[in-house]
Amino acid sequence: xxxxxxxxxxxxxxxxxxxxxxxxxxxxxxxxxxxxxxxxxxxxxxxxxxxxxxxxxxxxxxxxxxxxxxxxxxxxxxxxxxxxxxxxxxxxxxxxxxxxxxxxxxxxxxxxxxxxxxxxxxxxxxxxxxxxxxxxxxxx
Length: 140
Known about the structure:
It contains two helices and seven strands.
């Protein structure tokens, strides 16, 4: 009986997580996105910045900057993909920040949403959750 209660509570928590996604996911804004990983950066966290379609034509310089970053990020990578690593400022407040990427003579503007909240734990079953689910199935 107790396992069934745990399963019900677990199901409710998962459903709530799907209905109300975690605030603080990094999002791209604009036609040419600026991708950020991990997708829920917090202040002080190191993140990967990827800019598809960021060719080094013209001046050949590629960089990205944001008020959320500790400094300007140099983008490297293939001719059509700019990649770099940034650090979110420790004093960055939760909210949306512009991310400007310079790709040769072109400018790509995206966005980043920073949060101080921790992300939900993975939704994949852990060994303990799998044991609980198996026990609940056996009890019927």
